[in-house]
Design brief:
Keywords: Cytoplasm, Metal-binding, Methyltransferase, S-adenosyl-L-methionine, Transferase, Zinc, Zinc-finger. The chain is an alpha+beta fold. The chain has helices spanning about 5-10, 15-20, 60-65, 80-85, 120-135, 145-155, 165-180, 180-190, 195-210, 210-225, 240-250, 260-270, 275-295, 355-360, 365-370; strands at about 20-30, 30-35, 45-50, 55, 110, 115, 255, 300-305, 315, 320-325, 330-335, 345-350. The strands form five sheets. It has a three-stranded antiparallel sheet with strand order 3-11-10, with no helix packed on it. It has a three-stranded antiparallel sheet with strand order 4-8-7. Strands 1-2 form a two-stranded antiparallel ribbon.
């Protein structure tokens, strides 16, 4: 059952404004739905800003000490701390530290399990939506807890670079478990693109590799032990779990947050003399070289999310729009890459922007632009 079109705009920052600018149309049985402009957009315009239904940090990313808010994925390290860790230079000092927008004094921990949030608002939002059903309490470090076993199994099957997370599926289940209107949330999740059985197998094979069938069976067993709910019994059957797995693999949008990149963007906006600009750019260039030498590709706090309106965008090899996360949290900004006319379909590339751009731009350029995935 498809969700009403009003629901497609419900998680946008300004739903009424967005619904007057774009519309979702059914194209055909092959492409399904698509997103179309109702007004003209200029290159660089923000088409909409949207938060996800659910999101989750990648498990390996968390294991490698990329600290992020458990709800909104905001990077929790200050730009300076982030730069020190990524560069391997413990006494590094960033100029213009006042440009860092991370505020450790506002960070909050779950009183039961101690997972961290960027603010009390995010802690409460997570508790209200899904965290009460997933909180491990004093068992947070217990490897024998069913959720810990599920996480460990996923990490053993899906090594970096990650493209999905079993915890995204877990939060879908937990959200429905906690919801008063369970049917409403089930309808929202049903809005995402689904696949035929053979396509679902291809997606599972891609995510899990040669042993995907046995691994998928193990994941389903652990998933059921940790999270089973009668209202969602179809998600726990072999066919339903494969479909859920495929839904996340097909529709999951990569999210990248970085306090360092946000600081670099703020530096770009400073009003400086030519000499000051040259000195600051030279510092950033050297910092990036140090980061690349020490850390390589692993620059961001990374995860994935399910975005209702963004999921209506079809792939284009010549996209006229792209997603980015400039607010250092899970808010997706869809921006025009070229002028878009009324009635024109809005298309994005499903390829990793880092991979697309690396042959044409310097790594420094990628850091400054930060349109991750």
């Amino acid at each position: 059952m498809a969700a009403p079109e009003d629901d497609m705009f419900s998680l946008c920052v300004d739903p009424t404004k967005v619904s007057s600018c774009v519309e979702v149309r059914f194209i055909d049985k092959i492409k399904g739905k698509g997103l179309f402009a109702k007004k003209a957009f200029k290159k660089g315009d923000t088409i909409f800003i949207e938060r996800p239904l659910v999101s989750a940090q990648f498990l390996w990313n968390s294991l490698y000490k990329y600290k992020a808010c458990e709800f909104c994925l905001r990077a929790l390290e200050t730009a300076e701390d982030n730069a020190r860790r990524l560069s391997g230079i413990p006494d590094l000092s960033l100029p213009h530290p006042e440009l860092c927008k991370v505020h450790p004094e506002l960070h909050q921990a779950c009183p039961q399990c101690q997972v961290m949030y960027c603010s009390d608002e995010c802690r409460q939002a997570a508790a209200d939506q899904y965290h009460r059903a997933l909180c491990l309490g004093s068992s947070q470090e217990d490897p024998n807890h069913p959720i810990s076993k599920l996480k460990d199994a996923w990490k053993s099957m899906h090594y970096p670079p990650e493209t999905s997370s079993i915890m995204l599926m877990a939060r879908m289940v937990a959200t429905v478990k906690q919801a008063q209107d369970k049917g409403h949330w089930q309808k929202l999740f049903s809005q995402f693109c689904s696949r035929a059985a053979n396509e679902e197998e291809e997606i599972a094979h891609k995510l899990l590799g040669e042993k995907f069938q046995g691994q998928l069976t193990l994941l389903r067993t652990l998933f059921t032990t940790a999270l089973y709910d009668d209202h969602l019994n179809r998600w726990f059957t072999p066919e339903g779990f494969r479909s859920l797995f495929s839904l996340v693999g097909t529709n999951g949008q990569g999210i990248g947050t970085s306090s360092l990149s946000q600081w670099v963007h703020a530096c770009d906006a400073l009003a400086l003399t030519s000499q000051q600009r040259e000195q600051l750019d030279s510092f950033i260039d050297q910092l990036y070289k140090d980061v690349e030498k020490e850390t390589g590709d692993f620059l961001n706090c990374e995860g994935s999310g399910l975005f209702l309106l963004q999921s209506a965008c079809n792939h284009s090899c010549i996209p006229n729009a792209a997603a980015s996360f400039p607010s250092n949290n899970f808010l997706l900004h869809l921006s025009a890459l070229s002028d878009i006319s009324p009635g024109e379909e809005i298309g994005i590339s499903y390829l990793d922007c880092c991979q697309r751009d690396r042959s044409r731009h310097s790594r420094h350029k990628i850091l400054r632009w930060m349109s991750w995935i």
